[in-house]
Design a protein that fits this description.
There is one protein chain. By secondary structure, this protein is an all-alpha fold. A two-stranded antiparallel ribbon has the order 1-2. A hairpin with a 2-residue loop joins β1 and β2. The protein is globular, with a radius of gyration of 20 Å.
């Protein structure tokens, strides 16, 4: 084992874990003041629920063995339940740092993925229903998809799809789930009838900054070593984010006449999302192309919720689903053998497209079933009175801001 690689991976674990609080503030600033704490809580609780489930069975079902359906690996086994056989060796993954560090790194991804969905259902979903949803979704959706792509399953091994740091596993997975959940949940009171404005954009900018910072661990850590590949992922991450942010506000200014703060940080996140699957397979110019496409297309994708009349509160579908699809597909075209050992081709593009369809269809379908079952069993929508009064007081008996004379 290598101490430098171990130190870098421990740092990456901390960086990616920090992204969940960053996401909480990114989302929190965009909701109304009466729902700020409820939004923060929906993000933070994933850190508790998913950690417990990951230790008990999630890590094992993702990375231990592979249960097959025909010739295709679909799920891990329970040999590692409770992480009791993990030890301090590096024999499970065969990397240059301890297996328990790899399990921790993967845990941070498992935490932030359901937290991403929270932005789509902001200001109207009950906390108890959300907690139950996170638990079920982590086991029934995240774990299988992560196994298919990264744990020896059929998407990575048989289809040959590439996903450096989570375009399929994290962003398309969460974006498809967000779409399914909001279709079951329904729109907020006043959607398309009254202005629903962010209450604290400085918090959103702060959250975006934390996300941007943490994303260097998200992508750079996915090289699994302190080496040239990690350095390239660092560079491509920055290039794509900066390009997308700039492209977004140019498109925004051309449309509305005014570039916005929210537009710049949303564009940056769109670029970070899009480069995630490709960060280790493309060079700086490829990253710039991905960022440019993501910044423009994700900006125009904001209109989808009005065209199809679904209330995606904080634009998870436009940024994460669309951005994840852009990055996953362009990877198949722009990959360079000098960086990740794979060159872009029609064949690779086909593999990427098939993996996108599989991830979207599975996540959307299973999420819709989970949401429908929870709605029948316990109700997932806050009452009209609670929604109008705000979820902070109604569900948590707390207030974000208390003015004292």
């Amino acid at each position: 084992m290598d101490s430098g690689d171990t130190a870098w991976m421990l740092t990456s674990c901390a960086l990616v874990l920090l992204m969940t609080p960053g996401l909480a503030f990114f989302y929190g600033g965009m909701v109304r003041a009466k729902n700020m704490l409820a939004m923060l809580m929906k993000n933070f609780v994933a850190m508790g629920i998913v950690t417990v489930l990951w230790v008990l069975v999630g890590a094992s079902l993702t990375f231990s063995g592979s249960t097959t359906l025909g010739d295709y690996g679909v799920l891990g086994d329970l040999d590692l339940w409770g992480l009791r056989n993990l030890g301090a060796s590096n024999t499970l993954f065969g990397l240059t740092f301890p297996d328990n560090v790899m399990i921790m790194f993967q845990l941070t991804f498992a935490i932030i993925t359901p937290a991403l969905i929270a932005g789509a259902i902001a200001e109207r979903m009950k906390f108890t229903a959300w907690a139950a949803f996170v638990a079920l979704w982590a086991l029934l959706v995240y774990v299988p998809v992560a196994h298919w792509v990264w744990g020896g399953g059929f998407v990575g091994e048989d289809i040959g799809a590439l996903d450096f740091a989570g375009g399929l596993v994290v962003h398309i997975n969460a974006g498809a789930a967000a779409l399914a959940l909001i279709l079951v949940l329904g729109p907020r009171i006043g959607f398309r009838k009254e202005a629903i404005r962010p209450h604290a954009l400085p918090f959103t900018v702060l959250g975006a900054g934390i996300l941007w910072f943490g994303w260097f661990g998200f992508n750079g850590g996915s090289a699994f070593a302190a080496d040239q590949a990690a350095g390239n992922a660092f560079l491509t991450t920055q290039v794509a984010a900066a390009t997308a942010a700039t492209a977004w506000i140019i498109a925004e200014a051309a449309t509305t006449g005014k570039p916005s703060t929210l537009g710049f940080v949303s564009g940056a996140v769109a670029g970070l999302v899009a480069i995630t699957p490709a960060a280790g397979f493309v060079g700086p110019l490829g990253a710039m192309a991905i960022g440019l496409v993501a910044g423009v297309v994700c900006y125009w994708a904001l209109r989808l919720k009005f065209m199809f009349n679904f209330d995606d509160s904080l634009d998870v579908v436009a940024v994460h689903l669309v951005g994840g699809i852009i990055g996953s597909l362009l990877l198949g075209v722009l990959a360079e053998e000098a960086y990740g050992g794979v060159a872009g081709s029609v064949d690779q593009l086909g593999r990427q497209a098939l993996s996108v369809v599989i991830a979207f269809a599975y996540s959307f379908g299973v999420t819709w079933v989970i949401a429908r079952v929870l709605d029948l069993a316990m109700g997932i929508r806050a009452s009209e009175v609670d929604e109008r009064n705000g979820l902070d007081l109604a569900l948590h008996e707390e207030q974000s801001y208390v003015l004292v004379d």
